[in-house]
Amino acid sequence: MSNLIKLHKGLDIKLQGKAEETLLSLKSNGHYAMVPDDFEGVTPKVVVNEGDMVKAGDALFVNKQYPEVSFASPVSGKVTAVVRGERRKVLCVKVEADKEQSYVDFGKKDVAKMDAKAVIESLLKAGIFGYINQLPYAVSTNPQVMPKAIFVSALRDKPLACDFEYEVKGQEHDFQTGLSALAKIAKTYLGVGKGSALEGMKDVEVTVFDGPCPAGNVGVQVNHLDPVNKGEVVWTIGDPTTVLFIGRLFNSGKTDLRRLVALCGSEVKKPCHVEMLVGEELSTLLSNSYDADHHVRIINGNVLTGRQTNKDGYLGAHTSEITVIPEGDDADEFAGWIMPRLKQFSVNRSYFSWLQGKKAYALDARVKGGERHMIMSGEYDRVLPMDIYGEYLIKAVITGDIDKMEQLGIYEISPEDFALAEFVDSSKLELQRIVREGLDLLRKENA
């Protein structure tokens, strides 16, 4: 019997262009790249050279702070480039895929006969461990500190999100194996949505979260189940596909980084799903998928937390959506925001569109206003279902008051928890960036 937690705070944003449950067959162009910035808190040290031949599962780079944490190549092939930016920062490691793929054989394992140490060592060798994050600080986790608990969220409820229930069909055995492996390390909690087919998963404590977005945020689930106090560490998996990666490793003995991706957004001609590998170039997916004459924004991820990219970008390590929406820089509206309208969404019912019920909108990327003084209006609290004072915490981060940050619960949060607050914020502050800077400051001070 699973637990039920009912949440009332939050906001479901209905957008046009949700991916249908159809699978598009995609032929890759063979270009792949692993991007260190996909793994928050990792300082990469490249362990391959241009021209090296690698197998799927071989390490491309490691975390300089914890060298045992490696990040595996998704394909076998030739390392074509190590791309660096300012101050020799590693931007990505590119691999040209072989026509016939070969894998490092890590050997099939029976999870039931393994202990925590064996599970962690297997994940480290296969280059998958770095996909697990931790609280506090919302960074790729430290394998040297054991967690008090592990939290997995299988509920994707952000706008246009790829439905994990659809992705996991036919892969339930791998998902169960992944959960059982994590349960060997520490007590594991699984958060699911109402009516989920995953309520029957074994070896974990299943909790049903019923409420609007961001009920699926793993940080929200931690806050309601077992909050993080100073000095404590929990491991978090907000991207449930990571559990599939873990399960496939033990069931097949291979590093298999396949994932289902939703091609979505109001500008996409035929929103659908496609199977891709982590790090795969987006040009094949995006060619002819939208009107090239339109000014669009391509987002590697969802509209709330994703990063802007282009056709030459690569699928992110935790990305389950590629979203295409209007940029909005060519919009020409008479009298601007002051005109009454029916086709635009407003949280505060500034437009008459709220009379039309649960209508799906084609929103663009405009901010519609400049940054201004912070208004203490309670806006954050209405969409933040956590036991923290969001506005006061943001003020403490801006002023660099570490004591206040700790008192107000910064150890429990991640930037994505403030994504909806950023959307509704009338002050137009970049809340996710502010939270990330606060977490980085705290991590540096406590190092």
Helices and strands in order:
Elements: E1 3-6, E2 23-24, E3 31-34, E4 44-46, E5 53-54, E6 59-63, E7 70-72, E8 77-84, E9 90-97, H1 116-125, E10 133-135, E11 139-140, E12 149-153, H2 164-167, H3 172-183, E13 188-192, E14 205-210, H4 218-225, E15 234-237, H5 241-252, E16 258-264, E17 272-277, H6 283-286, E18 296-300, E19 307-309, E20 321-326, H7 379-382, H8 390-399, H9 402-407, H10 419-424, H11 431-446
Parallel strand pairs: 1-14, 2-17, 12-13, 12-15, 13-14, 16-20
Antiparallel strand pairs: 3-9, 4-6, 5-8, 6-7, 8-9, 10-11, 10-15, 16-17, 18-19, 18-20
Give an account of the 3D structure:
By secondary structure, the protein is an alpha/beta fold. Helix content is 21%, strand content 20%. The chain contains 11 helices and 20 strands. Strands 1-14-13-12-15-10-11 form a 7-stranded mixed beta sheet, with helices on both faces. Strands 2-17-16-20-18-19 form a 6-stranded mixed beta sheet, with no helix packed on it. Strands 3-9-8-5 form a 4-stranded antiparallel beta sheet, with no helix packed on it. Strand 6 and strand 7 (70-72) form a beta hairpin. Helix 3 packs across helix 5 (241-252).
